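Per-record layout

source: Subsaximicrobium wynnwilliamsii
name: 3-oxoacyl-ACP synthase
length: 152
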Amino acid sequence: MTNSTLKQELFKQCSAYVAQKFATIQNQIRDVQDGLTSETKSSAGDKHETGRAMLQLEREKLGHQLADIENTKANLQKIEPSAVSKSVILGSVVFTTEANYYIAVSAGTLTIDGQSFYAISPNTPIGLLLMGKVIGDQVYFREAGFEILKVL
């Protein structure tokens, strides 16, 4: 697999992850909205008010999650998968002596052709350490050191 194809595939997997999360949150918001509508139609009383309050809190929490995922989506759209840089930037694939990273969004472990990559945000602790580094640089994280072998 070429370097360009690898970056495209990692980008595609991150995009799918973000889209799936976005859809899930929207579905949950719709379900809560439906619940609020049905609570409004039910009988009055303390039980009714408690149910409505719980649904309102859930809707507020989901609103924050939706804002977060929209932020994540916006950050992902800043990435140009074909961009090449000698130093680690947003959208870089970083090979180290310990693990492989894709600097994009926090999407967990992605596997391509049997090789694992940790999709991380540049704002995570390890992401902050990697940003701006170049091949041969040593990075120390949690009392362990590793070397950057390749940056795509």
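summary: The longest helix spans residues 3-41. DSSP finds three helices and six strands in the chain.
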